[in-house]
From TrEMBL:
Residues 33-177 form the DinB-like domain. This is DinB family protein. It comes from the Bacteria. SUPFAM superfamilies: DinB/YfiT-like putative metalloenzymes. InterPro entries: DinB-like (IPR024775), DinB/YfiT-like (IPR034660). It comes from Eiseniibacteriota bacterium. Pfam families: DinB_2 (PF12867). Transmembrane segments: none annotated.
Amino acid sequence: MPVRVDRNILRVPRRARNAEAASFLAQWNDLSQRMFGDLANAKTAELAWQPRRGANTIGMLLAHNAVVEVYWMLIATGEFSAERLEDVLGLSMDGDGIPMPPAGEAPEHLRGRSLAWYRKLHDRARAFATGILGRMDAATLEKVVKRPRRDGTRHDSNVRWILYHVLEHQAGHYGQMLLLRHLYADRRKRP
């Protein structure tokens, strides 16, 4: 019997301006491919399902990942404005519905959206981020971005951390999506 071999090969473009930025992009792309592969058969009803009021839906999380990716790329370049984010995505900064009030329902404008719609939103965010990462050099990754917070404190991070944060943020929400898929499949099995 032949041995089954699973191959996980992550490639970084050889002609990238900055190999480290290109490596982050390759990791984002691999994670996105896996995420959309795992969601491939998710129907519109599943994407909009809430296990309880106040809980995120898979669709909200997909929209949130796109919003966050564009948000952090705009922060990294020092070009953030809510209007610019909406220009890129066609969705407002709070268009993902996150955070949601404890008894909130998913945003009306996300109900009935297909996986293909969320994929297009994701692809717009990724195309925007790809353009920005393609211009980054080693000095850009070291640049420290100082961002005031609503509570009056300040968050300082270098661009390298921002790229890492986009990766770990997407990975965390991908895990949530997988959990929601299990809960959705099990919802009829409960007593």
